[in-house]
Specification:
Blueprint lengths: L1 E8 L1 H12 L8 H12 L1 H18 L10 H17 L3 E10 L1 H7 L14 E2 L13 E4 L2 E6 L2 E4 L10
Antiparallel strand pairs: 1-2, 1-4, 2-3, 4-5, 5-6
Helix pairs in contact: 1-3, 2-3, 3-4
């Protein structure tokens, strides 16, 4: 049993950036979104960075390579590479710490089972509101090693090795 830190992907912000970068200018709705896009577009460095984050977000969300046995390994390598880049770039927010726990304990402690997880007293809550429950793509850190939650279990974002395969 160890201390497990739980990080949630800043999905809403990434999705908004994704929409800003990938939606044609004339389709943009709100004026502030158009102004933000113009700011990004007019700053070459910022535009390059926004496109790079957009590309990594798409890689993280793309499960198409996982559907064929011959591209399965490459798919997980892409997903973990994207997760690692986004984690190192600050696109994950620390939301909880669970002491004397396993990965499974920390995952269960940050799920909305029998009430909101952040109101339970068995986990130390960090971060900002509003909290959502932990879901696929979120990262758990144990002894400076990051594990991404997936539908298949936990995968090390540095080596693309599943827990149990290591």
């Amino acid at each position: 049993m160890v201390t497990v830190n739980v990080y949630h992907l800043r999905y809403d912000e990434l999705y908004r950036l994704h929409m800003l970068v990938s939606t044609p200018t004339e389709s943009r709705g709100r004026e502030e979104e158009r102004a933000l896009f113009d700011t990004i577009k007019n700053d070459t460095k910022l535009h390059h960075h926004a496109n790079r984050i957009h590309d990594y977000f798409q890689m993280l969300m793309d499960a198409s390579l996982l559907q064929q046995p011959q591209t399965y390994k490459e798919g997980w390598e892409n997903i973990t590479s994207a997760g690692r880049y986004l984690f190192e770039s600050g696109w994950y927010e620390k939301v909880a710490t669970k002491h004397k726990a396993t990965l499974i304990d920390a995952w269960h402690a940050t799920m909305n089972i029998n009430g909101h997880w952040f109101l339970k007293n068995n986990v130390t809550v960090k971060g900002t509101w509003p909290f959502r429950q932990t879901m696929n793509g979120d990262v758990f850190e144990v002894n400076k090693r990051q594990w991404m939650l997936t539908a298949n279990g936990f995968i090390d974002i540095n080596s693309a090795v599943f827990l149990g395969d290591a």
